[in-house]
Amino acid sequence: GGFPSFRPVTGLSEEESLLVSLVHYRAAVEALSRLGDASEKTSAQRREGNALNELGQLHLRQGNLTEAEEYLSSALEVFEGVSDASNAALVRCNIALMLRHRASKLEAPPTPPERMEPERRTLLARSVQTYEEASASLGPKNDSNVGIWTLVASELANTLCIFASQLQTAQHSEDSDQACALLRRALTLYQSFGMTERECHVHVQLSQHW
């Protein structure tokens, strides 16, 4: 049972194969809507969301961040439309990673700034917020979501550390204090799932605060 997946067409690139599949998934969703088959329509929509997410990841790997954001935003809309919290959380993780990449691509100032540049700060803050939204959508950790929950929490902790490292290069005490607060949040997360190596790394970062 279930809606069949489309196999890649020989001779096409990965992106072209995904685009062909996407066209057919969307046509199937439309046809199933006319038939009134809600179960099969939901299955087709999930496959549509998967194709959009894979296209977003492909462009993310290639550094095409505008295209990545468009596909990932569409994937999130699809998964939220069918109340698929797990896949929506995974897409939010990819969106958060895309925001981190945007921040990393910003040109570094020639000398350490007094305050962190506003655009970099905004992108990293949005990345943290997106991971937090992914975590909130999953709810408390349980047997059914432990894998995704741990992935989201670990990536949130990693991003908190990246944000803190960027803040620590600035010369302003408020940025330094914010960096310390972010690191303490990351430390709590790493301790919650026993990532001892990362925990040690955060302690080193915290030692630089004093």
The biggest sheet amounts to: none
Question: Could you name the ranges where pLDDT drops below 50 across 5 or more consecutive residues?
Answer: none
Radius of gyration: 20 Å
Give the helix level as a range of percent.
over 70%
Structure characterization notes:
The protein has 210 residues and is mainly alpha-helical. The chain is 77% helix and 0% strand. The chain is built from 8 helices and no strands. It has helices spanning 14-35, 38-62, 65-81, 85-105, 118-138, 146-168, 173-192, 196-207. Helix 2 (38-62) runs antiparallel to helix 3 and helix 5 runs antiparallel to helix 6. It is elongated, with a radius of gyration of 20 Å. The mean pLDDT is 90.
Question: What is the topology?
Answer:
Elements: H1 14-35, H2 38-62, H3 65-81, H4 85-105, H5 118-138, H6 146-168, H7 173-192, H8 196-207
